[in-house]
Amino acid sequence: MKRIRYSKYTGNLADELEMESLLEALSDFLLDSGFRSPFSHFQELGSGQTLDNLRNAMRQALEDGGMFDDAIRERLDQMAAEGEIEKLIEQLLDRMEQEDYVQFDRGQPAAAAQPVAGRVSPAVGEAGGTAPEVRFQVTDKGLDFLGYKTLRDLLGSLGKSSFGRHDTRELSTGVEIVGGSRLYEFGDTLNLDATATLSSALAREGLSLPLNLEYSDLHVHQSDYQSSCATVVMLDCSHSMILYGEDRFTPAKRVAMALSHLVRTQYPGDTLSLVLFHDSAEELPLSQLARAKVGPYYTNTREGLRLSQRILARQRKDMKQIAMITDGKPSALTLPNGRIYKSAFGLDPLVVHETLEEVARCRRSGIMINTFMLASDPGLVQFVQRVTAICKGKAYFTTPENLGQYLLMDFLSRKMKTIH
């Protein structure tokens, strides 16, 4: 009788590793903001998004192994002892590309590549400046996962939370019944209140058959009127966001990605835009958020508000709001001739006056400004209180650790109160 021997199946570790766990382990590297933390596993890597840096970051994540279970860590140790880690890294890179978490740009020599918005210009290769330097970028799918992961962690820290929609005090006609019925008007959702409609017809016609229904007999149920909202996240990327031994910019990026995922999946009628402000201001596509880094030194809050107003003016929504995340006082101003006036010595009266004037314009346009402060020095607190008083918004004095909780609580609850 022929015998068949079966060897133990070990499988391919590159196929068994959960890609979500690997992305989570690499999230600090993928969302790098230019801050070199001494406690980061990736502090010695270059800031460019090159394939070599990604390989090194993946090697460090695998060596750390904190995101994997004991069985995976044992196999990683065994592969490291056998010198198979480099082969595993190449297999994982291929899988990340095939599953559309990252994209590689292999087509252009480093010396000929031109810098584009949101991308660091490649360095010159060693061989006469013509060797191609492979770069990568996080895809929309990768950003979506990182945003989902952040949102899940934030909602877990908040406890029970209902996504719902933006409720208002107004009543409308719809499927969910929360109030009494009223006479039907043209354009209403035809969710008929059969009892009230028949009662109206019987009161007019009496108990006779057939029963004639007229337009004036139609009654419809009322439900909460749920409005749509246009939101602009104003993100301070001045140099102070990574000074004083603390990275404040990366947590802000994570919150913006979480809010983007929330809006896209739970509030399809809403819009979300992103504005970076520093010496000046610019609108940044959400797909480029992962590559955003801290920029010039000064804080041109007024220019950020002006750009945000232009963005919101294009949106035909019931509610419009600005969520401003900053850690510094306004210290720059764009003059009528286009020149940028800069003041590094506290609250400059001209800068403050023009910034508050812009806040007043937002108020007159019906735009709510909610400010999330990552610092608490007395001069800054006084400025934020004046902004809040003018626009009737809210001020949250928070830290990078609980910034996301405050911002999501504000977006989900829509309550009018100030948290200090």
The whole-angstrom Rg is 28 Å
Question: What is the ordering of alpha helices and beta strands?
Answer: HHHHHEEHEEHEEHEEHEEEHEHEH
Structural class by sheet pairing and helices: alpha/beta
Give the low-confidence spans. Answer: 110-130, 160-169, 171-178, 415-420
The name CATH uses for the topology of the largest domain is: Rossmann fold
What percentage of the residues does DSSP assign to strands (E)?
A: 15-25%
CATH class of the largest domain: Alpha Beta
Number of helices: 12
Q: Strand arrangement, largest sheet?
A: 8-7-6-9-12-13
Number of DSSP strand runs: 13
Helix content: 25-40%
**Proper CATH architecture of the largest domain:** 3-Layer(aba) Sandwich
Q: Per the principal axes of the C-alpha atoms, what is the gross shape? A: flat
Taking the alpha carbons of the first and last residues, their distance comes to 82 Å
Main beta sheet: strand number and arrangement? 6 strands, mixed
What would you give as the CATH superfamily of the largest domain? von Willebrand factor, type A domain
Q: What is the number of domains?
A: 3
Overall mean pLDDT: 76
